[in-house]
Amino acid sequence: MGEITGRRRFAWTLLKRSVVLAVGVLLIGWLLNTPGGLLGKADAIGYAVCHRIAVRSFFLGERQLPLCARCSGMYLGAMLGLAYQAILSPRRGGLPTRGVLAVTIFFVLAFIVDGLNSFLSFFPGAPLLYSPANWSRLLTGTGMGIAIAVALYPAFNQTVWADWDARPALPGLRLMGGLFLLAGLMDLLLLSNNPLLLYPLALISAAGVLVLLTMTYSMVWVMFLRAENSYQRFSQMLFPLVGGFGFALLQIALFDLLRYTLTGTWDGFHLG
In this structure, is residue 153 part of a structural domain? Predict the structure, then answer.
């Protein structure tokens, strides 16, 4: 029995060290083979998930932001939604109330409608509901990001925490309204074109890609390890978090490699 336990402990230690080593090597390789600087790394993250078409993006002076207007809104909205729930409703994992769910569905539908309308603008003469604009892409993207946060935050809490709270993270429209007001203020800051505001918002939006993917893949790791609802603190789940980050970075790196191989450039897609 002691020998079997020892073998399992050795295998577990080997697995953890191998994963940490692989993630470290992947991170170093990605850092060395992507554009330099913080915004350069943010560009590389955006490059993996966003078309980065210039006319559909905001600019920091002469420099295009890492994500297009819609994706900027989506990942900023998701980051805001996650932070808002984490502060006001720590470890809550209950289903949204009907009112919150209805608003969330509206956000998703608005995202789909604006996206389809924007896509149709690629085709001259196609019937449009309204003239597409970056401000509408930003607003509907932000709404979609909030919807993602409303779904992901309780799912993460239900999966990892031993003492997760069964109450809804957003128990009513009052809290949802507060989140919506903060999101509107955030979008106004982005639309201000103030470089002092655009720079941190650009970095936060790119970080949002990593955060969402890491949370999702960390849940996968927790389920793979059969460790659901077994954690009391973040420090106890460092291994699945590192594994989740590794998978997130691997996805980004693979998409970066594929896109760069096909296009030969770090620029966004060019129209015309």
Answer: yes
